[in-house]
């Protein structure tokens, strides 16, 4: 089966294709200064109340209400960075439907960016959970995604799709369904599913690994993608059965083992289990859980997605983690960077909240921004780390968490920083 290819429009061509000129170009388009102890930030996708900085719909009929669920990936051996998010046309909620995947491309390690174009937008289905990974042996860049049904059926039988690029994201195939990679119940029936979101990894031995609900999707050298089970959650539903973990991350430690990092399940948080990240270390078929607890209490979490990458800092291997440092359910607005120097065994030495370098107009009044929620990290060849973080525009003064989460349009901010911002040289 041959897939059609779509051109990724960058620079002036991409701007013209979206009908943007002059002040209508979505920021950032120019490089911004960066010192070793500086955290720089710019809006990269959307902002429903920022006028010309909002992302137009492909139809030209207005702007996206919200952009959410970021993925960012720096292509190894190049200065190319790809960023992909969900463009939600009508409202911020998961059930609002008809999401498109929007992408921007940088060819200078995140200094400047093209205008936004669509990676997946066909039909009224929702394209969701972008998750990118690169194969250094073939040069192919993959983007996994889910195609969800419209509206209230969004959590019923989503399907795994895969788009690929062989020119570092300049052009992409149309997404192709991979029914063999869908999550299925033990009975064989259909069920809700999640991929990533964010990024997968290539292991030192060459295998590609992508996190997904209840499993890892792995491509061994010379083979095809296949599902591999991971440990289930803590809460017993019935007869000893436990629910699978959903959205999560994966990284490879310096000792060659994988570290899995999943968000707590709602059923766990509702039944007295700690608000913290769920961790497993090892390899498919042989996982070491942290004691009998299954969680890492050094990384508290309100039940939201997080980001995790490996990155060399001052010549030493580190794991870098970004999530909301809050134990309160649904409070996703205490975003904190952490770094672990011992392969994720401890996380308490190096940590710093993003509030030490707040976004412009961040506050608690109508029109202000509230940063936090889903995030993604990328390690560039220049040593700089890039992060994408959700940021919501408040509609009321001193809003409740419900108002922030359900009534505030969401944008995605780019954070760019030297790792010495967390780990001093």
TrEMBL record:
Transmembrane segments: none annotated. One of its GO terms (molecular function) is exo-alpha-sialidase activity. One of its GO terms (biological process) is ganglioside catabolic process. CDD domains: Sialidase_non-viral (cd15482). Belongs to the glycosyl hydrolase 33 family. This is exo-alpha-sialidase. One of its GO terms (cellular component) is membrane. The lineage of its organism: Bacteria, Bacillati, Actinomycetota, Actinomycetes, Jiangellales. SUPFAM superfamilies: Sialidases. Residues 102-383 form the Sialidase domain. Its EC number is 3.2.1.18. It catalyses: Hydrolysis of alpha-(2->3)-, alpha-(2->6)-, alpha-(2->8)- glycosidic linkages of terminal sialic acid residues in oligosaccharides, glycoproteins, glycolipids, colominic acid and synthetic substrates.
């Amino acid at each position: 089966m041959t897939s059609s290819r779509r051109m990724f429009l960058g620079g002036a061509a991409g701007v013209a294709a979206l009908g943007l000129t002059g002040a209508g170009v979505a920021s950032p388009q120019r490089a911004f200064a960066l010192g070793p102890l500086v955290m720089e930030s710019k809006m990269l996708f959307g902002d429903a109340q920022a006028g010309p900085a909002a992302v137009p719909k492909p139809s030209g009929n207005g702007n996206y209400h919200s952009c959410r669920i970021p993925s960012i990936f720096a292509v190894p051996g190049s200065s190319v960075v790809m960023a992909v998010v969900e463009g939600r046309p009508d409202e911020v909620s998961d059930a609002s439907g008809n999401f498109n995947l929007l992408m921007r491309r940088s060819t200078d390690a995140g200094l400047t960016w093209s205008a936004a174009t669509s990676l997946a937008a066909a039909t009224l289905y929702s394209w969701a959970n972008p998750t990118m990974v690169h194969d250094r042996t073939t040069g192919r860049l993959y983007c996994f995604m889910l195609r969800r049904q419209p509206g209230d059926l969004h959590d019923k039988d989503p399907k795994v799709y895969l788009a690929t690029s062989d020119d570092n994201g300049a052009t992409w195939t149309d997404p192709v369904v991979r029914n063999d990679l869908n999550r299925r119940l033990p009975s064989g029936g259909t069920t809700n599913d999640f991929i990533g979101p964010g990024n997968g990894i290539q292991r030192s031995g060459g295998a590609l690994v992508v996190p997904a609900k209840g499993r890892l999707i792995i491509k061994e050298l010379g083979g095809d993608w296949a599902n591999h089970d991971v440990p289930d959650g803590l809460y017993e539903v019935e007869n000893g059965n436990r629910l699978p973990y959903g959205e999560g991350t994966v990284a490879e430690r310096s000792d060659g083992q994988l570290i899995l990092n999943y968000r707590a399940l709602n059923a766990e948080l509702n039944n007295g289990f700690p608000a913290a990240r769920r961790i497993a270390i090892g390899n498919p078929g042989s996982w070491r859980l942290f004691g009998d607890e299954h969680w890492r209490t050094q990384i508290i979490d309100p039940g939201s997605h997080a980001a995790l990458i490996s990155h060399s800092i001052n010549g030493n291997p580190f794991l870098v983690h970004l999530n909301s440092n809050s134990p309160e359910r649904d409070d996703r607005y205490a975003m904190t960077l952490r770094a672990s120097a011992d392969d994720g065994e401890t996380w308490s030495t190096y940590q710093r909240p993003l509030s030490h370098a707040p976004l412009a107009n961040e506050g608690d009044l109508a029109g202000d921004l509230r940063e936090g929620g889903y995030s993604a990290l990328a390690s560039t060849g220049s040593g700089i780390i890039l992060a994408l973080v959700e940021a919501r525009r408040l509609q009321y003064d001193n809003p409740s968490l419900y108002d922030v989460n359900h009534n505030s349009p969401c944008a995605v901010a780019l954070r760019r920083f030297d790792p010495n911002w967390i780990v001093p040289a």
